[in-house]
Amino acid sequence: MSAPQKTNYHHIGPYNKIIFQTEFIKQFSTSGRYNAAAIPDMLNLLSMIERDTNINDVRQAAYMLATAMWETTSPISITKVAKNKKGQPLLDKNKNPVILKQKKWLMTMAPVNEIGQGKGRKYHEPVKVKLMPDGWTRITEQDGDQFKILDGGAISPLTKGAKMGTKDGGSASKIYDSDDGIEHAYFGRGYVQLTWWSNYATAGIAIGRGLTLLNDPELVKTPEIAYALMSYGMRTGKGFANGHRFSQYFSGDATNYASARRMVNGSDHAEDISQIAKKFEAALLKARPNITTPLPVKP
Q1: Are 186 and 211 in contact (CB under 8 A)?
Q2: Which residues pair with 182 in a beta bridge?
Q3: I need a labelling partner for 191 at 20 to 30 A (CA). Which of 2, 16, 239, 262 fits?
Q4: CA 162, CA 147: separation in Å to the nearest integer?
Q5: Is 123 within 8 Å of 197 (Cβ atoms)?
Q6: Does 24 score more than 90 pLDDT?
Q7: Residue 298 carries which DSSP code?
């Protein structure tokens, strides 16, 4: 009896979008979070993955899609007319239809704001950003702590004992009130929720955008920038990924979607996202052009 053929996960470039969309609907349409309106944004994300020559494994693409699906699923309010057991509209005493409001979680597959915008966390309060005449940037936090950022991304304290982050809901200091910098908030944005002003600064530099994300944090919700941040972190382990990267979870025959969650948020819902990634993997494998080259032989 011959051994089962190993799956060749290597892939760079296009997938058949028609097949992929068909498989996507088949895999996910019965989910309570399914949202047909998100399909164009999902296909846009897949197109960015296709153009990224650094993504060379189907499992990498599958995990990026799964992460985006999970992280960009947001609550929305839905209204509908209440009906009786016969399916007829229920009416109030004025003979108007009774309207029910429900909260439902739906995937968007597009960059989003963090739910609650970081409320309760030390990065929730805005800071002030000031470009200084000789080229460096000053950051002033609400508690009065100030920091210096150089063009290359080096960050150093300007005030003695300065620590990043402030108490959420605390009173702004006199230093903050008198600062003439531009106020910005650095709650989570994007496909993988970039947070903290320091990460906006260093991540922007890492993807070749300089300090533009620090000076205009809403840019992180631009799909191309949100994708660049996700790809960079997952490939290198830098930035939000905290040292965890694709090569640790997908290599040769080894696949560990559950542990790959460490790249984004520890073990939070790791198994849920793992199951989503497996469905995306199946869809991508079917949508991949026929592979005729044999698996590389290990020396």
Answers
A1: no
A2: 129
A3: 16
A4: 8
A5: yes
A6: yes
A7: P
Residues 27, 287 contacting (CB under 8 angstroms) = no
Contact of 217 with 186, CB cutoff 8 Å: yes
Please say whether the beta carbons of 30 and 279 come within 8 A. Answer: no
Identify whether the C-beta of residue 33 lies closer than 8 Å to the C-beta of residue 105.
yes
**What residue type is assigned to position 53 of the chain?**
T
* Strand ranges in the chain using DSSP code E only, listed in sequence order: 73-81, 99-107, 112-113, 127-131, 137-140, 146-149, 155-157, 182-184, 189-190, 250-251, 254-255
CA dist 196 and 209 (Å) reads: 17
Q: What is the pTM of this model?
A: 0.86
Q: How far apart are CA 222 and CA 189, in angstroms?
A: 10
220 C-beta neighbours (distance < 10 Å), count: 26
One-letter amino acid identity for 120? Answer: G
Closest CA to 214 of 227, 195, 231, 232: 195
Greater confidence, 240 or 298?
Answer: 240
Q: Mind listing the pLDDT tens digit for each residue in 209-227? A: 999 999 999 999 999 999 9
φ/ψ region of 109 (left if φ > 0, alpha if ψ in -120 to 50, else beta) reads: left
Under DSSP, is residue 172 helix (H, G, I), strand (E, B) or coil?
coil
pLDDT above 90 covers what percent of the chain? Answer: 75
Query: pLDDT tens, 159-194?
Result: 999 999 999 998 999 999 999 999 999 999 999 999
Radius of gyration of the chain (CA): 23
- Give a three-class secondary structure readout of 264-282: HHCCCCHHHHHHHHHHHHH
Contact criterion met (CB below 8 Å) for 195 and 71: no
Return the closest-CA partner of residue 251 out of 11, 9, 64.
9
Kindly report, residue by residue over 264-276, the tens digit of the pLDDT: 988 899 999 999 9
